[in-house]
Amino acid sequence: MVRALLLILAALAVPSAAAATAQDFIVIAHRGASGERPEHTLAAYERAIDQGADYIEPDLVATKDMQLVARHETEIGETTDVASREEFADRKRSKTIERRLVTGWFAEDFTLAELRSLRVRERLPGLRPGNARFDGLYQIPTFEEIAALVRAKEAETGRRIGIYPELKHPTWLFQEAGIDTVDLLATALRKADLDDADDLVFVQVFEVGPLKRLNALVETPLVLLISSQGGPYDEPATSWADILTPSGLTEVAGYADGIGPHLGHVLSADGTSTGLVGDAHAVGLKVHPWTLRKENAFLPPALRRGAGQGAAGDLGTLARMVRASGADGVFTDDPALVLSALGR
User: What is its EC number (predicted)?
Assistant: First the structure.
């Protein structure tokens, strides 16, 4: 594998006609600059914008009183100080989320005012101890606040900045709590004047039905997220492997504008292209794989450097491989490193 990787590195020095150029390859700040600040905080989003990210990506869940807020999951015990708050001890419970048992505290059981009393903490303190220094400083932001931050930074910098929201578990959340996050997001996009085709917005979901509904509600470009295994929760008879076939991609193109596949669907183990990008482009779909992270724990063995899982490896080479595959962009926790590696 190492020898094959060296051959790929040599090939990267020669521009490919199929490779996306620096101008049309977007860098999406995954949960903000989450490699440097606790994820899904205004601080993480602003740092990513200041580093030059083209888009910031908030994962959206809903509160009990129907407000969209940014958290990686509906379970908030992992990313806030709620476990230490005695007044919320009785909110702890177990729920089966998309066939997986989860125990903790859940956003949909709290009002926005209650969530705003909490403070965010780093989700991966073992790998990112530097981020843990910021524990307790930040609140959970609303989607409205994130859109306002983007507007303010556009005015400050004079450049357009995109938003790439993901709806988390929309079908399950409607089944569990009767909260329709598809409608909430469509309403929020209209309110922020971000629902047109030419706005710098992509909306992403790991499910088919919610995307089809959004396709009828807004003109915003839509992206079907694709995991490494399994299939969409709302279509249990369909696998991701089915969707990634030429006929499956043709069907996706009927209701979405792009796919957000797991990186392993785009690059083989030796760093070569799998051909998925070409298949997706053939039916008019953009391809934005996820997620590039600098820590050794998230990198292939040949790109790891130094000692320990939290040490920084060769993220730049992986970023150039993704661009060389012809992909249209990439999600990353470390936008500054990826932008530098791509010569931006």
Answer: 3.1.4.46
Residues 40, 72, 265, 288: which is the catalytic one? Answer: 72
Main-chain phi, psi angles of 59, to 5 degrees = -80, 135
Give the pLDDT of residue 239: 98
CB 303 within 8 A of CB 317: yes
DSSP for 235-291 reads: -TT--HHHHTSHHHHHHHTTT-SEEEEBHHHHB-TTS-B-SHHHHHHHTT-EE--B-
- In sequence order, the β-bridge partners of residue 204 are 166, 223
Question: What is the identity of the amino acid at 295?
Answer: E
30 catalytic per annotation? yes
| Under-50 pLDDT residues of the chain | 1-22
Which class for 237: exposed (0-12), middle (13-18), buried (19 or more C-beta within 10 A)? exposed
What integer pLDDT is reported at residue 278 of this predicted model?
A: 98
Q: What is the structure's pLDDT at 11?
A: 40
pTM of the model: 0.93
Please tell me the distance from the alpha carbon of residue 41 to that of residue 118, in angstroms, as a whole number.
13
Given 30, 40, 169, 265, the catalytic residue:
30
Place of tokens 């992403």: 204
**Helix %, strand %, coil % for the chain, to 5?**
40, 15, 45
Domains in the chain with CATH codes: 2-65+141-341 (3.20.20.190)
d(CA 337, CA 344): 10
What is the Cα–Cα distance from 80 to 168, expressed in whole angstroms?
Answer: 18
Residue 321 and residue 302 in contact, taking contact as beta carbons nearer than 8 Å: no
- For the chain, report the end-to-end CA distance as a whole number of angstroms: 29
For residue range 12-21, list pLDDT tens digits in order.
433 343 444 4
204: enclosing H helix or E strand: strand 203-205
